Amino acid sequence: MTTAIAFRQVSRHYGTVRAVDAVDLEIAEGEFFAMLGPSGSGKTTCLRLIAGFERPTAGEVEIFDKPSGAVPPYRRPVNTVFQDYALFPHLNVRDNVAYGLMIAGVARAERHRAAEEALSMVALPGYAARKPAALSGGQRQRVALARALVNKPKVLLLDEPLGALDLKLREQMQVELKSLQRQLGITFVFVTHDQSEALSMADRVAVFNEGQIQQIGCPQDIYDRPNTPFVADFVGSSNVLPPEMVERLTGKRASASLRPEALRLQADGYAAQVIEKAFLGAVTRLTLDIDGQKLAMLLPKGEEVPEKAATVHIGWDEDALHLMEQRDA
Amino acid sequence: MHSDRASLGLKIAAAAGLLFMHLPILLIFVYAFTTEDKSYQWPPPGYTLKWFSVTWERPDVWEALSLSLRVAAISTVVALVLGTLCAAAVSRTRFFGREAISLLVILPIALPGIITGISLRSAFNLADIPFSFWTIVLGHATFCVVVVYNNAVARFRRTSGSLVEASMDLGANMFQTFRHVILPNIATALLAGGMLAFALSFDEVIVTTFTAGQQQTLPIWMLEELVRPRQRPVTNVVAMVVVLVTFLPILGAYYLTRGTEMVAGQGK
Known about the structure:
The complex is a heterodimer.
Chain A: E1 3-14, E2 17-28, E3 32-36, H1 43-51, E4 58-63, E5 66-67, E6 78-81, H2 93-103, H3 108-121, H4 137-149, E7 155-159, H5 167-184, E8 187-192, H6 195-201, E9 204-209, E10 212-217, H7 219-224, H8 229-234, E11 239-241, H9 243-250, E12 256-258, E13 264-279, E14 283-290, E15 293-300, E16 311-315, E17 322-323
Parallel strand pairs in A: 3-8, 3-9, 6-7, 7-8
Antiparallel strand pairs in A: 1-2, 1-4, 4-5, 9-10, 11-12, 12-17, 13-14, 13-16, 14-15
Chain B: H1 8-31, H2 50-56, H3 59-92, H4 98-110, H5 113-126, H6 133-158, H7 162-169, H8 174-202, H9 206-211, H10 218-227, H11 233-257
Helix pairs in contact in B: 1-11, 2-11, 3-6, 3-8, 3-10, 4-6, 6-8, 7-8, 8-11
């Protein structure tokens, strides 16, 4: 398996701020890779390091096993879909999409044909003559995608590309992006702060916090077996149990994650008090107090919802409690 | 409630205001056709077109006009280059003292022309630079740069910075990015700024008085003509030409920048 992108102890510091701090990372060719994290966690800086807009303070970013060092953005086999799309306002859609080919010296007729092809690939045929200002957010997003893909990059970088779209459109684009990636076989590196987006689309996910990668793994692993309390909390808002409590429950001293949906009402279980309840549609979220520790619990529709301040008994499957290595929470 | 029709009082006020501003200019135009050439007599005793041919044959008019046009053209070019570079630096990068530089660039236009004139004159004297065509250009460039800078900086602010990154991401080097992305996005602003700079330079008197040697730009020539009258209406004919030469670029700049708010920096 070829490695498309590799980070070797890459750091990017701004003064005393460690935007990216000693990151090691390998992304395989053809992979749909998500960089997930809260804003300011370093994920976008990592993307910009790949694109070449930023240079590492230390370490090396390798693109297809070649050190990228001083290679300027315009000589890298990667293209970017920008968060604000960055469509050229003075060019119409066709010329926007054909821009990379125009720079590469492709003849007018040929690049216009390629642009039309790319536009129909993103389901936007017939818009070629319009200016970006005359498009909706979702359409601009597709143009940005076509403009990057028309150059047949080896790696496509996507910086929160769905962030500005409404929920419905976002879900639709998630499906389309995923099938586009399968169809083209291009490596996608996708930056997002939305954990459900990362989990649903990516082959593998890297969870970032404060410039460091907390965990890399397939979505299932990240969700079921978070390495650190941060990952447990950020991905799926898991309950993080403190070591003292885990020691009482299991005899081992470590933090543990316990998914809210793994909790169930159980007559012979632990006694807990309902502090709050919120109806979320398909489920009801209860906030419970168990020996001074707050726990979130998701109650599926159909189960009887206890009153506030009532005492309930809860339990969980033994393997639902996932012990974590102790790292900075 | 808004009424579609202005009240009578408002109409009269507007008309009076416009007359106050433009009647004197119309008078200048009228006197270009008068048959009386010693004093400005109202009403003109008769009308003639002969002053146009007289003006046409006066070499001093042509010299002054040509000098003014050359000075304005070169000052505008200098202003376009310096103003654009300055605007790009101030709006694209953050550095210590950025706001101060921004203020210092704008200052010459706020400063009375006489101050600029005096300071340039003493600077030229100190540096032993003889007064010439180029000292006039330098004097004019001080305020022309401001006009271009102001226009360019406003456009740069409205142009999303990621456009440059997008262009480079798509394979364009610095030069290609400038040519295909930056220039088209700031072109109308530069044109507008350049035309304004040209117009400002063309009718400048005060700074020119201090930085010109024996040479006469058109406005200076006109001033001299008024002091010692000789075929007075010639001055009026030239004044008409100046009004037209100044008015056309400004009108052009107005049309070029109208409705370009959407051109750059449309975001999401």
